[in-house]
Design a protein that fits this description.
The protein is mainly α. The chain has a single domain (3-128), classed as Four Helix Bundle (Hemerythrin (Met), subunit A), CATH 1.20.120.290. 83% of the residues lie in helices and 0% in strands. The structure holds heme C.
């Protein structure tokens, strides 16, 4: 293989790998966040809820760009890009609702926002996994 081909192959591999990292990083951060929020609600530990919410917010930011999300949709699901991107938008809004309700000590409403985040995770997963 010519050097230029090797370089091209290496560049392609790196860009594919880092694109994949973004999704995996995002999902892993959100998973941690959701686990913490759940533990927080179950054990009445507000700090855990707050910390977990920040993780979900940051993780979601990594995977909210339509172009990035589109790269992870299966070929036959590309037309669902708006639904997928809306799931991420919904998480962003729910995170705000959750935070405001925690500030107001409205824990039931905060827990409902948490449930809605979980539904939004499932909404996008149902597309990428053909559930
Ligand atoms: C906009 C789409 C989208 C949203 C919203 C979304 N995910 Fe994902 N998720 C994906 C994709 C794409 C994959 C990779 C494909 C697969 O696992 O089927 C994935 C995979 C995962 C995985 C497995 C990771 C891996 O490395 O295999 C976890 C855990 C996960 N998501 C957690 C979450 C959590 C928690 C939320 C909600 C807070 C969430 N996701 C919301 C698209 C999304």
């Amino acid at each position: 293989m010519k050097l230029i081909n090797i370089l091209t192959a290496a560049t392609l591999t790196i860009s594919v790998a880092s694109a994949q990292d973004i999704m995996q990083q995002s999902m892993s951060i959100m998973e941690q966040g959701m686990t913490q929020i759940q533990q927080g609600f179950l054990n009445n530990n507000i700090k855990l809820i707050e910390d977990g919410t920040k993780l979900v917010k940051n993780g979601n930011k990594l995977f909210s760009d339509k172009k990035v999300i589109g790269e992870y949709l299966p070929k036959d699901k590309k037309h669902m890009i708006n639904v997928a991107a809306n799931a991420s938008k919904r998480i962003e809004l729910d995170v705000n609702v959750l935070e405001l309700n925690i500030e107001d000590k409205a824990y039931i409403n905060a827990a409902n926002a948490y449930s809605d985040i979980l539904n939004a995770c499932a909404r996008c997963h149902s597309i990428v996994r053909s559930w």
